[in-house]
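Good morning,

Attaching, inline, the backbone tokens for the sequence recovery test we're adding to the shared suite. The designed sequence is right after.
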């Protein structure tokens, strides 16, 4: 498409989803996302790892026909990584928008995964974008970028693993609307595991029951129980021909913890389940 931003529509096209990502809703989250999007309100998704937050955003981006730019936040992620920087090459210096600036400039969903991991200069950059101003100051370039009407900010974090100093500041929280995610109820989770892992529903239900037992170990020192993602991994290994115990040890019990006692408990759960 030519005209307004022609070349770059092209550039963001690489971020468009080609096929519908399967997403099984557990409640009213689709309607909630649509409402937030219609009002261009930023959205915060909170919940444990591997419970479907990313898949949900992918599904919604596909549904809304918008490009999705995903940024995995980490402790070195700085404002420059998000906003952009001057680059030097044979022809001189030129400005390169960072992923956040690209989404804001050309319109799309920008999804910052595990936002609490990012450096504070990176999170502060989101403030004017996340409120009614909808601007991104590109200080190094001397530009105040006004967000495209299709721009939407979505962030996620896992309240379970915040270290002592990590957490979202009230100044951030108060700019967002939020949805709480958790592992879905057993019947829905089994349907997801069956479909994603390619196993029969009764086998998926047994994996979910095992997953629920590991989640109860959280009271006994396990940081986090098996996620839906892990149950899908176990299903995939089963589909590839591994025996159930071997699949569950490899996909769930072994990766979940390095602690000797918890390891014994997890292997016990696997052996009791299959
Ligand atoms: P998160 O972003 O919360 O860490 P993901 O969205 O990456 O987790 O989910 C991990 C995997 O679990 C997905 O790749 C998908 O296979 C499966 N999954 C979890 N919840 C759902 C759901 N509601 N619908 C479809 N797949 C799901």
């Amino acid at each position: 498409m030519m005209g307004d931003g022609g070349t770059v529509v092209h550039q963001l096209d690489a971020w468009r989803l080609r096929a519908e990502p399967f997403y099984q809703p557990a409640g009213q989250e689709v309607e909630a996302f649509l409402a937030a999007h219609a009002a261009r309100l930023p959205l915060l998704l909170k919940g444990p790892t591997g419970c479907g937050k990313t898949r949900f955003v992918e599904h919604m981006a596909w549904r809304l026909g918008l490009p999705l730019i995903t940024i995995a936040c980490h402790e070195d992620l700085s404002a420059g990584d998000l906003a952009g920087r001057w680059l030097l090459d044979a022809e001189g210096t030129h400005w390169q928008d960072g992923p956040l600036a690209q989404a804001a400039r050309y319109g799309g969903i920008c999804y910052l995964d595990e936002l609490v991991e990012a450096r504070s200069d990176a999170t502060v950059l989101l403030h004017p974008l996340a409120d009614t101003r909808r601007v991104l100051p590109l200080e190094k370039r001397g530009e105040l970028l006004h967000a495209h009407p299709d721009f939407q900010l979505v962030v996620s974090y896992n309240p379970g693993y915040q270290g002592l100093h990590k957490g979202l500041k009230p100044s951030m929280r108060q700019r967002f609307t939020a949805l709480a995610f958790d592992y879905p109820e057993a019947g829905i989770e089994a349907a997801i595991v069956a479909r994603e892992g390619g196993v029969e529903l009764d086998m998926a239900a047994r994996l979910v029951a095992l997953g629920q037992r590991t989640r109860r170990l959280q009271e006994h020192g396990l940081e986090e129980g098996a996620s839906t993602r892990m149950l899908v991994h176990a299903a995939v290994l089963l589909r590839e021909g591994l025996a159930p115990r071997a699949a569950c040890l490899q996909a769930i019990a072994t990766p979940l913890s390095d602690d000797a006692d918890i390891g014994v408990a997890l292997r016990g759960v696997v052996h009791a389940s299959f």
